[in-house]
Amino acid sequence: xxxxxxxxxxxxxxxxxx
Length: 18
Description:
This protein is mainly α. The chain has one helix spanning 2-16. The chain is built from one helix and no strands. The model has no long low-confidence stretch (mean pLDDT 78).
């Protein structure tokens, strides 16, 4: 789950726009 967050968090920031 840790590595999933490492991938999901940056992607989520890009989708949300920061």
